[in-house]
Each structure stands twice: as structure tokens, then as C-alpha cells.
Please model this.
Amino acid sequence: MTFPISVVSGGTGFVGRFIVNGLIEAGHHVRVIGRHAPNRGDFVGPVAFMTASLGDEVDWSPAFNGASNFIHAAFDHLPGRFRGGEGLDPEGFKNRNINGSEALFKAAKSAGVARAIFLSTRAVYGTQPPGKILDEDTRPHADTLYGEVKLAGERRLQALADARFCTTSLRVTGVYGPATAGREDKWTPMIRSWLAGTPIEPRAGTEVHGRDVSRAVELLLEAPIDDVSGKVFNVSDLMVDNSDILAIVQEATGLAHPLPPAADTTAFNPMATERLKALGWHPGGKRLLQETVRDLLVAVEQVDRPAPAA
Model:
């Protein structure tokens, strides 16, 4: 039996790591492109690694030689920031993320890669009428440079699609889940602050677990080409409020610290995911949210537990 070779750019990033591990578990041989070599324990199996960054003028062909699939999860931005990730260099930000991505797409196609998937974002929709449900036919209205750059990436990839090169974009909402050793996920700082009695501001947004993003990628690689080529797919699961997260922590710990008030979501734009679910995608929902928050709490307690007396 032969196993597919899949290339993942940005595979050492927070979301990319979920994708790499999902592909390894599905039997793929994985090659990772990233700025920094992976740490021990990042992945559930061995990977080949190429050190490179978006916008580098390098020969990409070694990464794509013999590969069947390319998943482009790399994104050049300031640490911890997507919106506003351009900092003081908007032109460089655009060049690296738009032209740099296109260079990778073209290199993959030239090498004979059959399928390419681009990790885009819900930010391409931008400002929409209050309460409007966002489906894939909703006209994009990107109103941040982040959204504009991702939308341009979608269009550059789609322009390369033909009978031998299947292209798809995933418009992903906020992604949650555990981070690797030595790194922190986005909710642990809030959990730690609440445990210390610090008041937490209300906030809500749509979320999806990184594992479910990985499963969406796997389904798109398995789906008939006519069902996915040239299309975009929304990836979103739950509306999650800070009070939802901390209620799980409160129940697990028995602490009486007050929960933040629920945020007003009446004007929020939820994402429709029927197109992806038609391919067999089933996100983890509230069960996975609860399991993840409990696991994050355990990790916080282990790290913050006082050392035993000598």
C-alpha cells in the first residue's frame, strides 16, 4: 500500500500542528515547511522538515517533489496578532502573504501536486448586516488588512485551478485547543486570572477545535474533486462566551468567584457550515469544549501547584 505525501506550510504553528498530527494519524507521510524546526513532542510521528518563510526566494521543489497534497497554513504576522498583524509594515505584510503564498501555490502545481487547500478566515466576510448568517455565498466585505490578504490568497489559488490542480479554501473561525509544551493556548491566561480572583471582561465569538479543523482538511482531501474544487467552506462550531468557559472551570473547582456577564451577541454573524457537513464533517460541539476546558484547567493546576518542601 502506498501512502500519500502531504506538505503543510506553517505546520509548526498552533493550527498547523493539529493538521499535521491529523494527517499523520490518517496515514499520510507529512513534510512541514516552517520558520522554526519543530520541538520534540510537537507531532505524533516523524515528519520531514524544510526551514523557510513566506516571501523567501528559495527553490520550493524539494518540498513538493512526489507530493499529492499541499495544505497552506502559514501566515506571516506579528506574534499573537492576526488583525493588526502587519504592524508598521503593511506593504511587506501584503507582499509576503499574498505574493509569497502564490509562489508556493505555483510551485506545488508545477511539481504535480493534485490538491491544494488554503487556510483562510471568517475575516474575509468583514462587516455584515447585524445578525446575518454567513454562508459561503455571502459576498465578502473584508474591512481589515488581515481579511483583505486572506481573500487575495483565496483568489490567487482559485485562479490556478484546472483539471489537474484541485483548489479549495477553508474560511476558519477562531480556533481553540491545547498548545504544545512550553506554549500557551489563548484561554489559559484567562483561566489563570479567574482562578486568582481577577474580574474577567465579557466577550463572545465563534470557535472551532483545532482537531475539527484537521478533520475538515482530511475530508476535503478525500472528497470527489468535483465536490470541492474551486470552492470555499466555512469552518465553525460554537458561539463561546467567556462566561461559558469559566462556568466549566467554576463547576470543576467549586470556586465562588463571579462569572463575567454574558456578552451581547444579538448583532453577531454566525457561520453556516452545511456545505462542509454535507461531506461528513461533525464538529465536537459542547462535549469537546467541556473536555478541553477541563484539560486546560488540569494543566494550569499542575503548572501552578507549589513545589513540595525540601
Notes: Residues 94 and 149 are 6 Å apart (CA to CA). The domain at 5-180+206-235 is CATH 3.40.50.720 (Rossmann fold). The beta strands are 5-9, 29-34, 48-51, 69-72, 115-121, 166-172, 174-176, 204-209, 231-235, 238-241.
